[in-house]
What we know:
By secondary structure, the protein is of the alpha+beta class. It has helices at residues 6-23, 27-33, 39-46, 65-74, 81-94, 96-101, 104-115, 229-265, 277-306, 312-337, 348-355, 365-375, and strands spanning 121-124, 140-144, 147-158, 165-171, 181-187, 192-196, 207-218, 222-223, 267-268, 271-272. It starts with 5 loop residues before the first helix and ends with a helix.
Amino acid sequence: MSVFADEHEALRESARRFVLAELRPHAREWERARWFPDEVFGRCAEHGFLGLKYPEEYGGQGGDYVHEAVFAEELAHCGSGGLAAGIGAHVNIATPPIFKFGTADQKERYLRPAIAAEKIAALAITEPDAGSDVAGIKTHARRVDGGWVLNGSKMFITNGVRAHFWVTAAKTTGEGGHHGLSFFIVDRQDGVKPSKIEKMGWHAGDTALIALDDVFVPDENLLGGENQGFYLIMANFQWERLVMALGAVGAMQVAYDKTVEFAKQRNAFGRPLTGFQTLRHKLADVATTVHTSRVVTYDALERFVRTEGDAVKEVTMAKLATQRACFDVMDTCLQIHGGAGYMEEYEIERMARDARLGPIGGGTDEIMREILAKVLAL
């Protein structure tokens, strides 16, 4: 039985109409501007896309992870990896810890306005010297009267410049490590100094280096228990990686469809490109990759939902299987486009650049293999 019911397919049609009508027409403009307007979040909120999996009591749609999965996959049609990442980071990376671990007061102050697009959220974990090794986080929080003072830096933070608040990991013991991290909801203030980073891809996206200089955080903004931050980090990794797999599946399908259309219309030596066996076989291989990636990802999604988030093996496999495959698919599609594929006009060059982050972000391919090695008791 498919994990998707009729209501999910209806949502898919609605989401695709929204993406094609309101996001995709602006993709090239926003890519060239290396920014997309904050109003995009507002339009998403008006259609209910920022709270699909959150309860109605906080302004959400009362759906579940499957509803969110549909939107994550459909965002691939927007034409900009950075745009999709910005929206996705807000709904799938930064706000889930508040929903899962926040107090009722924190949910009212941060989750509700995030769902309404009144506040934009970012998750700040990665640092210049601490990526997958979260135990190596150096940003530290010092207790003061009424709260904490944070000092340190964060790197590669999606929505880091535009955010109204950052869900931030910091050391709360001298040694830090797995048992000495805590999470704080950090409001925009003078001591938070983001700097936009220029990247190979995701040009429309806002990615930042953030300096934290004597940033005060009140006691009521400690998220979860003191020194329990490592568990908060681990709690959302599966969903983040599953969303990346879904996004890759969606992007591969878009690239395949565009390339088939191009190959049928482009003539060489008196016939369309699909008239050449070599190119037909390449497209057949791409179609097979897209299908197998979707099957693996949907299986992981079904297990994730059924086990209430305990599907480490399958989710890790889905993330590992789809990210490099997505980049390879983009490279093949670009090659079929020939010289046109190297030009901005045909979009494939942008899709290839955007896809290259997949095997790095959310845990590298190497980390995924190490996790699998442990799960498989190798």
